[in-house]
Amino acid sequence: MGERRIEQRTHLLASSSYCGKVISISEKFSSVELKTKKTMVVDEKGLIHGGFTFSLADYSAMLAVNHPYVVLHRAEVKFTKPVVLGDTLIARAQVISEDGSKKEVFVEVFKKGTDEKVFEGKFFCVVLDRHVLDRK
How many CA atoms lie less than 13 Å away from 20 in the CB half-sphere? Predict the structure, then answer.
């Protein structure tokens, strides 16, 4: 029983090269894929900077909320395995609790085609009444 796919309403200009490519968005859930690339590497062994994994997870969390004015308030995350050049990552996010404009989203990131988890975390998001840059 798959969830009904819905239209993307947030982060419409996010770079698929650095934030990931949307696989699916449904009510309170998203899945995003990121293919690592040489511009993400930080050393001669091919280690990918953790910021790219975080960016993927954050993007997936925003898509699970899927409101035009959602912003990240804070996050509690854990990096569980290293990511190297050539890895493709899959982030899965699900809204696990809501309190008015506050949303808590759980995100896991895996190496594609495996059950090898590289990242997990809770993202605490807020839905604003207007764009964050329009607030005074």
Answer: 29
User: Per-residue pLDDT for the chain (136 aa), expressed as one digit of tens each?
Assistant: 456 779 999 999 999 999 999 999 999 999 999 999 999 999 999 999 999 999 999 999 999 999 999 999 999 999 999 999 999 999 999 999 999 999 999 999 999 999 999 999 999 999 999 999 997 6
Q: What is the CA radius of gyration of the chain?
A: 15
- For residue 70, count CB atoms less than 10 angstroms from its CB and return exposed for 0-12, middle for 13-18, buried for 19 or more: buried
Domains and CATH numbers, the chain: 21-134 (3.10.129.10)
Backbone angles phi, psi at 133, to 5 degrees: -80, -10
- Cα 80 from Cα 127, distance rounded (Å): 29
* Element (DSSP H or E) covering residue 55: helix 50-65
